[in-house]
Design brief:
Elements lengths: L1 H16 L11 E8 L3 E11 L5 E14 L2 E17 L4 E3 L6 E5 L4 E4 L2 E5 L2
Antiparallel strand pairs: 1-2, 1-8, 2-3, 3-4, 4-5, 5-6, 6-7, 7-8
C-alpha cells in the first residue's frame, strides 16, 4: 500500500514539474543577435531579468553598431534602452505598455523575437 502511495505521489510531482506554468518565468537571461547590411554592422543584446515573484521583467537592450559610409566602416557607437514588460503566459509575449513593444517568447527554442529580429539565449 505504501509503495502505491509513493508511486502516485511521484507521478503527480512529475506531472506538475512538466506543466507550462513552471516555465512561465524561465525566460530570464541574456539574448543576442548580429546582423549586417549595406549601411551598418550591428550586435544587439537583450538582458531580461525577472522581478522577485512576479510576471514583470526588466529588459535592457544594448546595441553596438558600426555605420558603413562610402564603403568605410566607422567607429563603433553604442545605445542602451531600458523598459519594463509584463509576461502574458497564454500568448507567450512580453508586453511593454508605454512604447507598445511586444517580444515573442519561445522557451523551447531558447529565443525571443522583437519585430523581425530573433535573439538566441546565451546565458
Amino acid at each position: 500500500m505504501r509503495v502505491l502511495i509513493i508511486l502516485i505521489a511521484l507521478i503527480i510531482t512529475s506531472l506538475f514539474s512538466c506543466s507550462p506554468t513552471s516555465k512561465s518565468t524561465d525566460i530570464s537571461g541574456t539574448y543576442v543577435t548580429q546582423f549586417k547590411n549595406d549601411y551598418s554592422i550591428t550586435s544587439d543584446t537583450l538582458v531580461v531579468v525577472s522581478e522577485t515573484n512576479s510576471q514583470t521583467f526588466n529588459i535592457e537592450r544594448r546595441t553596438g553598431f558600426n555605420k558603413i559610409r562610402d564603403g568605410k566602416t566607422l567607429p563603433k557607437d553604442f545605445k542602451v534602452a531600458k523598459w519594463i514588460a509584463s509576461y502574458n503566459l497564454e500568448k507567450q509575449l512580453l508586453q511593454e505598455t508605454e512604447l507598445g513593444k511586444q517580444i515573442s517568447v519561445s522557451p523551447e527554442k531558447r529565443s525571443l523575437k522583437l519585430g523581425d529580429t530573433e535573439y538566441q539565449k546565451v546565458k
